[in-house]
Amino acid sequence: MNNNLEIQNTGDRKKLLLGIIIMLIAATLFGTLGTLTNLAVQAGLSPVAFAMWRELLGTISLIILLAFGLGKTTKADRISLSKIPRNQIRNLVIASLAFSAYSLAMFYAFVELSVALAMLLFYTFPAIVTILCAITGVERLNSPKVIALILSLIGGALAVFGQLLGQSVQISTLGIVLALGAALGMSVFYMIGRSGYQSLPPTYATTFFLAAGTIVFAICGVVFGEGATLIAPFVDSSAYVWFILVFAGLAGAAIPTMLMITSIRMIGASRASTMQIFEPVVAAVFAAIFLGQQIYSIQIVGGILIICAAYILQRKTKESSVEPLSVPAIGIQKVE
């Protein structure tokens, strides 16, 4: 009896560790987007065009991978669209709207605020997710989660503050509202992603989200008078620009979004969102390597704090457990 319990606990801890590693990889890939956006703009591409092509090429990449059988479920586990519960379709649509709202809000927050300040406000979302999980009873709030969240928030803040050193700060009320709105949108995405559309594998769900993002950014480009910039890659762009766009679509959008959904399902929304705060640390490293920006000691300290948070989260305690990845299609289970 005790041996079986020990095996189960070991399996739970391995699942925790794997889910955390998956989220850290996703955060690392997401961290490339700031540098890629900067390089694309320097090459003559508008931010909205970059965003649209990133989503579109990410969608195309996933469709190609699915065509070759990568990311597909087995025939035994595959279900037709007509058999997916209506509540999961509804949840998928809501999550898609939340994901698109987050992307749009952040895009315009970067216009109204200093990028670092917008990121600082946006990364309040793990706290929102953790509080919502506790209030709704989806996931229990325990001391390791609280400690890890606090460490990650401080670490993320230090990483972002490093980007503000020596620079003038642009601020506006609209920008603050947009950045906090983006945080709320991402929080909704995380909450629903836990088990809201469990019948769809991460690859399929990611394809849907990126396709929706493509449409949203294309519409924004046209509505705000930037329609001509959307076709710029075909008019006056080099192979270098196309490389940036393809890399951003695959490694900066498709793969990390798929990994993020997988991690949320494995370890829960609160743990996964806490680990995503690693993104600004990685973004600072990439900016230093490719854009020549300086890395400050407080950013290094911030990264260490987030790694400490990851260590705390992966520790198995008597109060915590992780349910299997495969959960019922309908309903939301609790995660300790």
> What structural class do helix, strand and pairing data support?
mainly alpha
- Strand tally is 0
The span between the termini is 22 Å
Q: Note the main sheet.
A: none
Number of domains: 1
User: What is the count of DSSP helices, taking H or I runs of 4+ residues?
Assistant: 15
| SSE succession | HHHHHHHHHHHHHHH
Low-confidence stretches: 1-8, 317-336
Classify the beta-strand content into a percent band: under 5%
- The proportion of residues forming helix, as a percent range, comes to over 70%
What is the residue-averaged pLDDT?
84
**Overall shape:** globular
- The rounded Rg comes to 20 Å
Describe the structure.
The structure is a single chain. This protein has 336 residues and is mainly α. It has one domain. Helix content is 74%, strand content 0%. It contains 15 helices and no strands. α2 packs parallel to α14 and α7 packs parallel to α14. It is globular and about 55 Å long. The two termini are 22 Å apart. The relative contact order is 0.22. The N terminus and C terminus are likely disordered.
